[in-house]
Design goal:
- The chain is α/β, with parallel strands linked by helices and 789 residues long.
- Helix content is 47%, strand content 17%.
- Helix 16 crosses helix 17, helix 16 packs across helix 18 and helix 17 runs parallel beside helix 19.
- It is elongated, with a radius of gyration of 47 Å.
- The two termini are 51 Å apart.
Length: 789
């Protein structure tokens, strides 16, 4: 058993500013090769990025509020810089199936060039085609076709006229076409005149006319054939003229894109559609009557003309349409392929997509669509109703899918990963790489320099004042304070960035161009002061005597334990009086908090451990026949954790052995069944909490705190506490055993048995056993009296 009184140098690890090879962070150029302080995670992510097989997407596990997303994004950007730039994607009209736009890929930058060329082509078509039909040669050729048609038509009618005249009839042209009418005195009579003829004459004329009906039908058929031939010739002329006027525009593009079969196919289809719909290019009287010529344009969905390397996209709101793209509607029922808009998958295709899994799971459609896309390796854009499994009643589009090739990086916590891994088979097949982030990194010279580089990067990105060596050293010390460990540094870079900004602010308020250690200290203290209202109110209650805590003198079965109050962005330590009472009765140790359901499971475990210690230490040759009660006095909010189990055991033994405990010493630590003091959390807060109370009442050189020896390297105490230790006004002891703690708290040692197997008088075990015997003997006397009766 050893008792170590800690020196001031053991209470905090201080970074030496002279170790840094710079005057200010302006001299530094950050050179991160991975995620700062995360070598394991960096290696895992690197493996996932390099692995070419399907399904090796990455799930990053860690606290999502610590700035790791920004770190991962920068890491990916470094990796992506050397990767090839992915293709552009353009949607074009399908001239065979209007509702199924086609997707065409281009080399980076060529997609926008192609769309501009289509715009130029359309402008040329709208200019050249009307002009082509205004030429003299076209008018002459068209007139010739019309004259030829008219001549042939007149010849057919004249031939028929000569034949019907021989029968006393003539052909009369009407709005409904030629008809046969009687011929009297060299002229065709009218229908009214025909009705005035004698009935027999009318019958005779009708009979003659009916005899020519078949011949007249043949005439009409021949005229229609002439019309059709004439129209065909006119269309062929128009196509020929139009093709002659515009074919060189298409030939130029076909030559340029002859290596892209889909472009060649589209251009050929486009030319045929132009020639089949020439009237769409003719002038109209009203803008409302103009034809929709957008089918000859391109919809540049993804443009990488300005992209360097592979894209790294972070989608902060991963809803379905933000991931998969969307189809916008011009009215309630109509849309157009030019209204197709890209999603994050389109933009990240060929690169990397970062998503927060918790945000993604809030919209199940987005998560399902992502899994479907990764499984099929394609982006299938659907209208919202169809994506949700409903029937689409409005006129919509069915765009061709786009091949998908990217790495998805999900960022989330451990609970979500376990739930997905255990309940969704697709998840295990699609996200085979797990990268676990830690909330701390080792405090080595290399990582201290990495901290300095991080400060420099934050300063440069936000145009803050540079930090000198002393300021960076203070940031390193705060990094250890955040994780309560002299051997580690916090990786909560969001919180560290906040402190950097605020330190720069306080430097500017003092008109300093460079941030110093005093600015960092002020920023840290100001942050604490903005959040410590409950701590101040707690101290006021101590000052007003509303909370019963003795910090002087001695008392039996009463001890000062320590616990931590946590309010999210702020925590502080505070003492609590723990008392014990023992008496005759049913054997057992009761804890009031447990009996009133104000204690958590870990605290209850500590109580059971305490019972195990008592039985193992004092009931090997006799039974434990006493009742005991333990409680945190004035505790109204509940308690959990076992860090007070050492204090509870000391109070219990004091009650049994009837020996006093020093009230100027507080203790924290948990025990195991062998009486060994185990490490606890919040050692720094707890020590500072008891120090604050003693300081308020006046330090007397006796005050101090006992902590587990295993927590020694976790102390990162305030300078004023360290100064009090230097001045021998406050003390901190580290112990390994409950018996060491009792010796400090009572002056009583736990001496071993003598040669006769008996504990020395006034030793700890002798006093406790005497108390146990007293309670047990009284109980035995009661049993003897009952037997005699």
């Amino acid at each position: 058993m050893t008792i170590r009184q800690l020196s001031a140098s053991q209470l905090r690890r201080v970074c030496d500013p002279t170790q840094f090879p710079f005057e200010t962070t302006s001299d530094l150029k950050p050179s991160f090769n991975g995620i700062v302080g995360q070598p394991r995670a960096s290696k895992s992510i690197q493996f996932g990025l390099e692995m070419p097989s399907r399904g090796y997407n990455i799930y990053v596990l860690g606290p999502t509020s610590m700035g790791h997303r920004e770190m991962i994004e920068k890491f990916l950007q470094q990796h992506a810089a050397s990767r090839p730039v992915p293709n552009d994607w353009v949607y074009v009209h399908s001239f065979s199936e209007d509702h199924k736009p086609k997707a065409i890929y281009f080399e980076a930058g060529e997609g926008s060039a192609f769309c501009k060329e289509l715009e130029g082509l359309l402008e040329s078509l709208k200019e050249e085609l009307p002009d082509a039909f205004e030429t003299e040669s076209f008018r002459e050729a068209a007139d010739q076709i019309r004259q030829e048609y008219q001549s042939n038509r007149e010849q057919l009618i004249d031939t028929m006229q000569d034949k019907v005249r021989e029968d006393g009839l003539t052909i009369v042209r009407t709005a409904n076409g030629p008809i046969v009418m009687p011929l009297i005195e060299g002229r065709a009579i009218t229908a009214d005149e025909l009705d005035q003829l004698p009935v027999d004459d009318q019958k005779s004329w009708h009979k003659k006319r009916q005899a020519w009906d078949d011949s007249l039908d043949d005439l009409m058929r021949d005229i229609r054939n002439l019309d059709s031939d004439s129209n065909d010739k006119m269309k062929e002329l128009e196509r020929s003229v139009a093709k002659s006027a515009i074919s060189h525009y298409y030939e130029k593009l076909l030559d340029k894109y002859d290596s892209n079969p889909k472009v060649v196919e589209y251009l050929n289809d486009s030319l045929e559609n132009v020639l089949d719909s020439l009237t769409d290019f003719f002038p109209v009287d009203s803008e409302d009557d103009s034809a929709d010529l957008r089918r000859f344009e391109g919809n540049l969905l993804v443009d990488h003309s300005e992209t360097q390397g592979a894209p790294v996209i972070t989608e902060l709101n991963p809803r379905y349409h933000n991931l998969m793209g969307r189809i916008e509607y011009e009215s309630q029922h109509t849309t157009h392929f030019s209204n197709i808009r890209p999603g994050a998958l389109h933009m990240a295709n060929g690169g990397y997509l970062i998503l927060n899994i918790n945000q993604l799971l809030r919209n199940r459609n987005g998560w399902d669509a992502l899994r479907r896309a990764l499984t099929t390796n394609q982006i299938l854009l659907q209208p919202s109703d169809r994506a949700e499994g409903n029937q689409v009643l409005t006129k919509s589009l069915d765009p061709a899918p786009i091949p998908l090739n990217l790495k998805v990086i999900l960022i989330g916590n451990h609970d979500t990963w376990y739930r997905l891994y255990n309940h969704e088979d697709d998840f295990r097949q699609l996200f085979k790489v797990k990268a676990e982030l830690s909330n701390y990194m080792a405090r080595t010279p290399e990582n201290e320099l990495a901290y300095a580089e991080f400060v420099a990067e934050c300063v440069q990105e936000e145009n803050l004042r540079p930090f000198d060596r002393s300021a960076v050293a203070s940031m390193v010390d705060i990094g250890s304070w955040r994780v309560e460990n002299q051997k580690r540094l916090s990786t909560n870079f969001v919180g560290m960035c906040d402190l950097i900004r605020e330190a720069s602010f306080w430097a500017s308020s003092e008109k300093r161009d460079v941030v110093t250690a005093s600015d960092v200290k002020q920023a840290f203290e100001e942050r604490q002061n903005r959040s410590n209202l409950y701590e101040i109110q707690e101290m006021d209650r101590f000052k007003d005597g509303m909370v019963y805590i003795d910090t002087d003198g001695c008392a039996v079965a009463q001890i000062n334990g320590l616990y931590v109050m946590n309010y999210g962005d702020f925590s502080y330590g505070t003492p609590a009086r723990i008392t014990a009472r023992t008496w005759q009765g049913e054997p057992g140790i009761a804890h009031i908090e447990r009996e009133t359901e104000m204690a958590g499971p870990i605290h209850n475990k500590g109580m059971l451990t305490l019972t195990g210690f008592m039985g193992g230490q004092y009931a090997q040759h006799q039974r434990l026949n006493f009742s005991a009660s333990l409680t945190f006095e004035q505790n109204y909010s509940g308690v959990d954790g076992d860090s007070a189990s050492a204090a509870e055991l000391v109070a219990l033994l004091s009650s049994l052995g009837d020996f006093p405990i020093k009230q100027h010493i507080a203790i924290t630590g948990s025990i195991n069944q062998k009486g060994e003091i185990q490490p606890i959390g919040g050692a720094t807060d707890k020590v500072e909490g008891f120090y604050a109370l003693c300081k308020m009442r006046g330090l007397n050189g006796k005050h101090g705190v006992i902590i587990p020896a295993a927590n020694l390297h976790e102390l990162m105490l305030k300078q004023e506490v360290i100064d009090a230790v230097k001045a021998d006004q406050f003390h901190i002891w580290a112990v390994d055993s409950i018996f060491d703690a009792i010796e400090l708290l009572t002056g009583i040692k736990a001496l071993p048995v003598d040669d006769e197997g008996i504990y020395p008088d006034s030793s700890l075990h002798a006093l406790v056993l005497e108390g146990l015997d007293r309670l047990d003997s009284n109980d035995d006397e009661d049993e003897d009296e009952e037997s005699e009766e």
